[in-house]
Amino acid sequence: MILLRSVLEQGMIYAIMALGVYITYKILDFPDLTVDGSFPLGAALTALMIRGGVNPLLTMPACFLVGGVAGMLTGLIHVKLKVRDLLSGIIMMTALYTVNLQIAGRANLPFYDNNTVFDNAFVSSIFTGVLYPYRTLVISFLLMLVVKCLLDGYLSTKSGFLLRAVGDNDSIVTSLGLDKGTVKIIGLSIANALVALSGCIFAQQQHFFDISMGTGTVVIGLASVIIGTGLFAKVTLFRITTSVVIGAVLYKACVAIAISYVEPVNLKLITAALFLLILVLGMERKKKVKQSA
Amino acid sequence: MLEVRHLDKYYNPGTISELCLFSDFNLIVEDGEFLCVVGSNGSGKTSLLNLIGGNLSLDGGGIFFHGEDITKQKDFLRHRRIGRVYQNPGAGTCPGMSILENMSLADNKGKHYGLGRGINKQRIPYYKELLSGLNLGLQDKLDGKVSSLSGGQRQVLALLMATMNPIEFLILDEHTAALDPKTAELVMELTQKIVNEKQVTTIMVTHNLRYAVDYGSRLIMMHQGNIILDKGKKEKAGLKVEDILGTFNEISIECGN
Q1: CB A130: neighbour CB atoms within 10 A?
Q2: What is the overall mean pLDDT for chain A?
Q3: For B134-159, b where at least 16 C-beta lie within 10 A, e where not — what string?
Q4: Which pLDDT score, from 0 to 100, does residue B255 have?
Q5: Where residue A285 falls among pLDDT bands split at 50, 70, 90?
Q6: What are phi and psi of A95, to 5 degrees?
Q7: In this predicted model, what pLDDT tens digit does every residue of A97-106 receive, in sequence order?
Q8: Mean pLDDT in residue range A27-53
Q9: pLDDT recorded at residue A289
Q10: Which of A71, A139, A146, B63 is most buried per CB count within 10 Å?
């Protein structure tokens, strides 16, 4: 039961990150590695702010903005300096490593005694007795829901339409008399803003920042997106963003099951193998679609 | 009025495979003209359209819209005044979005793409009216994805989307070449209808000599970066396919096809 709760909690928090990866990978068709840096960027800024006595609620818009700037820089490198998509992300990811260390001041920054969005007087007054252990799950679910609904709303605006169009067929954006580069930069900004927000919430749940907590973020994000969109490709019952959220929870569950059977040192190897499996299964599906079309 | 003045264009400049496509090429398209461009493979028809649209950069000379020098203007800025339909039916539409979403996207051209609702419900009857004029039944499939449409249906939609807003120039880049004869006929009739209604200056590149003769108010034939035949309004009126077939065969045989 505790395992299930922990899977759901982490699934909800990582789902926000996966929604960001969904924007870059699925909508923009841009394999963005910046996320490995922008996830801990959110965590580092959160640790610094909370230790400095800032209201935990304020860390979220702050991380959203800073993550957006990181994504914007990746976009500018790609669009204005014409660096390939993958390399633009690698450059930003590498640069952010130092930025994160500079923000936090050191590689590990705990804040066990400080209030967070999950642990404060208000939350304690609502979640009393048997409900108390479920506070993190409920709050992370609500946060994820707000982000998902806002993203759904954005994707149905005119600006959101353009974002979808640029990934679908970027020549149409040029035909509309607009700069497709700008649209890509906006998409990357929103994506990394969500990833940094996810890092912010994750740090508050864990009560610490660690420089290594971003390693493999892109793998988790991609796996979640591919599981979600692959499994529910034919289901029109709910929106694609919902599929991504479910994908994030399922992926976290897979990893949790995997580590309960193997030594922790093998974790990354298992993660890689799992990701490969998901990718291959996902491609198989794609091929079949192409043949029948 | 669209002017191409003293255009030079080289491919692979400075290398052993350097190819001079245009050298001191000139073309003036008057307002309201419907220009058909035919020519052999590699004669520079599509390159000319790409140079006008800004997808290719030129090595000399200039391009002018109504006297305004747009030679250095970015492609997307030029397209604010141009509507364009490509040979590939997939290039003018977004396959992953619905017909309604595609039309809403095109309908907003020239306006701000902000945080307002992507679909303006009040415009839906107008879209339906546009689509029902085509007799393809598309008006009942507004929520269907464009990827589920046939090539011809997509091309018709692309043509509608390119001409929904006021534009100064319409550029048609072999827009019937990938379609079956019947659909091509339909797309050409629709093209004629739209050009007549909007009185928009049009340049159409085609491989189909019959279309070039039947449609439009002026016909030019290109070969190796030069205009070798130019039939204006009066001459074109009585023109038959046989009249230009000879010249066309000559240049085609020279090219070895």
Answers
A1: 7
A2: 91
A3: bebebbebbeeebeebeebbbbbbbb
A4: 55
A5: low
A6: -65, -40
A7: 999 999 999 9
A8: 95
A9: 46
A10: A71
Touching check for A171 and chain B: CB below 8 Å?
A: yes
ipTM of the modeled complex: 0.87
From chain B residues 170-229, the ones with a CB under 8 A of any chain A CB are none
Could you tell me if residue A249 is inside a domain? no
Indicate whether A175 belongs to any domain.
Answer: yes
Tell me whether A168 touches chain B (CB under 8 Å): yes
- Which residues, given as ranges, of chain B have pLDDT below 70? 253-257
Of B209, B236, B218, whose CA–CA distance to B39 is shortest?
B209
CA-nearest of B152, B160, B150, B170 to B102 is: B160
Give the H or E element holding residue B39. Answer: strand B34-39
Residue A222 lies in a domain: no
State whether residue B92 sits within 8 Å of chain A by CB: yes
Give yes or no for a contact between B4 and B21, defined as CB atoms under 8 angstroms apart: no
What was the pLDDT predicted at A263?
82
Distance between CA atoms of residues B242 and B247, nearest Å: 10
CA distance A170 to chain B (A): 9
Residue A72 lies in domain = 2-113+127-213
Quick check: B105 and A159 in contact, CB under 8 A?
no
Is A156 within 8 Å of chain B by CB? Answer: yes
Which pLDDT does position B244 carry in this prediction? Answer: 82
A11: CATH: 1.10.3470.10
Chain B's closest residue to A172, CA to CA, is B92
Cβ B104–A164 below 8 Å, yes or no? Answer: no
Residue A288 pLDDT > 50: no
pLDDT-derived band at A283, boundaries 50, 70, 90: low
Which pLDDT value is given to residue A290?
A: 43
Query: Chain A contact for B168, CB < 8 A?
Result: no
Bridging pattern class, strands B2-11 and B60-65: antiparallel
Residues of B in contact with A178 (CB under 8 A): 76, 113
- At residue A128, the pLDDT reads 87
Residue A293 has a pLDDT of 38
State the smallest CA–CA distance between residue A246 and chain B in angstroms. Answer: 22
Q: pTM of the full predicted structure?
A: 0.89
Asked if the model's pLDDT at residue A168 lies above 70, the reply is yes
Inspect the interface and report whether the beta carbons of B96 and A168 lie closer than 8 Å. yes
B243 touches A at CB < 8 Å: no
The answer to whether the CB of B129 falls within 8 A of the CB of B137 is no
- Among A159, A168, A176, the residue with its CB nearest the CB of B114 is A159
Cβ-based neighbour number of residue A43 at 10 Å:
31
Task: Look up residue A210 and give its amino acid.
Answer: D
Q: Does B119 touch chain A (CB under 8 A)?
A: yes
Q: Is the dihedral of CA A50, A52, A57, A58 positive or negative?
A: negative
Is the residue at A68 inside a domain? yes
* Number of compact structural domains in chain A: 1
